[in-house]
Amino acid sequence: MVEGGAVSSGTHRALRRGDPLLVGVDFGTTHIRALVVSPDGTVIASGSAPTPIYHPRPGRAEHDPEALWLATVVALRQATAQLDNPGRIAGLAVASVGEAGVPLDATGHPAYPAMAWFDTRAEAECEDLTATVGADRMARLTGCGSNSMFSLYKLLWLRQHVPEAYGRTTRWLNMADYLAWRLCGVAATDYSLASRTHALDLAKGAWAEDLLREAHIDPSLFQPLTANGTALGPVTPEAASATGLPRHCVVGVGGHDHIVGALAAGAWQTGTLLNSLGTAEALLLALDRPVAGTRLAQAGYAQGAMMLDRPYYYLVAGNFTSGASVDWLHRVVGADIPHETLIDEASSVAAGSNGVHFLPTLRVGNPPHPDSMARGSFLGLFPEATRGVLYRAVLEGLAYETRQMLDGKLEGGDAPKIERIRAIGGLSRNRLLMAIKATVFDRPITVLDMAESTGLGAAILGGLAAGVFPDVETALKGLKCRETEIVPNRSQTETYARRYQSIFRRLRSTTVDLHATIAKAGQDN
Question: Considering the entire predicted model, what is its pTM?
Answer without folding.
Answer: 0.83
